[in-house]
Amino acid sequence: MFYFCRIRECHSHMKRDRYPNSRKDELIGRYENFVKVGTGGYFEVDELETIINHYMDGAQPEVAMNVVKYGQKLHPNSTLLLTKQARLYAETGETQKALSLLEYIQTIDSGDEDALLLKGEIFLRRGMKDEGLRIFSLMAESGESDNNTLMNIAYVLNDNRLFDESTLYINRTLKNDPGNTDALFEQAYIQEQTERYDEAILTYNKILDLAPYSNEAWFNLGQLHMYQEDYGQAVNAFDYAYTVSPNDYQSLFQMANAYYMINSFEEAINAYDEYMDLTGETASTCVLVGECYEKSGDFISAEIYYEKAYHIDEENVDALTGLCVCCLEQSKAQEAIQYVEKAIEVQGESCEFWIYKAEANVILNRPDEALVCYQKASELNPDNVEVLISIGSIHVDRGEYETALHYFQKAKMLQNDAEMLPALLAIVFYQLHDYKMCEKHLSEALERNPSSLETFLEICPDAMENEEIRTLKDLK
Fold first, then answer.
1. Angle CA 322–390–335, to nearest 5
2. pTM, two decimal places
3. Among the listed residues 347, 346, 380, the one whose alpha carbon sits nearest the alpha carbon of residue 358
4. 374 and 392 in contact (C-beta within 8 Å)?
């Protein structure tokens, strides 16, 4: 039902922009204005780095390369710009060009960390693992266990899913600095990726002891609790994440999902509504609110939200089926049929859709049409016990007991403990005058549910006059 977003966020990967968003926007605007009118064209190297990162992050490598080449005219000896050029070559598949450029950079500055990191990363991606690891090992030794160097290596290794190798550098960092939250985040990421969720939870709690207002740590902790189906703890974690970062609407949304999973539907509705107030209504979120009301038994309110979802997206199948269910619950059978037929038109046939259509025909007292729909559902899913019992029940109403017995026995083979089956089998065997089998199944029905006797006698009122049936202790 829910889509859980990727746990890890890139919270500190390598060297990133030095400027806040407002300053970054001003730089981008100034550069684009320069391209357009040719004025204001001088930028410092760190400013050019921010502009290049913007276009790289926006999947615009050609524009980023144009910035690099312009920057090289301003700063011809900048190894940073050369390294950016090499990365762009690598990311566009021109790895040999990238490696040649990196070799050149090393003739200028043999210890340039960014160039060495990129060279090692390229080797890893070309399947030259030993060569890449050798570069990282030399970097770590020459860096005299500098934590920034160690962590930059760990980031690259994690991005290439070399978790054992990454752990060595993370552990070295934590030995130097046990409170290094960047290292703890990467450690937690490895634990998540290797499905050691209990360990990851402990690591995030360590982070929170050091940085109690870390939105990312609270959010990731909530995600882990969701994976482990510990939804109450997930609610608490997402609540903290949203409290410390009120613009983190994803935490609010996930908190609503967690409330839903523990059947706290009122709280879930409030959280979903708040989320939509802040981000706008979407069909999928309206459907979730509709489901909350539906599960609470408030079908009128549920229908309102399913209708909102339908108006936003007329091909939203969840909205259509939700509307169908609400109409069925309110005995608006003809409307239910219209919605389910639209759902079939959008998504194609499914067993569920034909069951809804059959139920609508039952409400409309059209048993023949209902039987056709149930048969269609059974063709689509021959092992659906609910459908088999419904088909058998229609044949009982018609007095076609042999046919009903066939469907009930088939259902029993698939699910021996189906609740209503013993009573239904007792009814059929009684009508077929097989009182021994009737007694057997009626005894089973009474053991499971004493009220089964009412169902049995409603269909077979003369059973009390039958000596073989009256010998049952419960009928005396």
1. 30
2. 0.80
3. 380
4. no
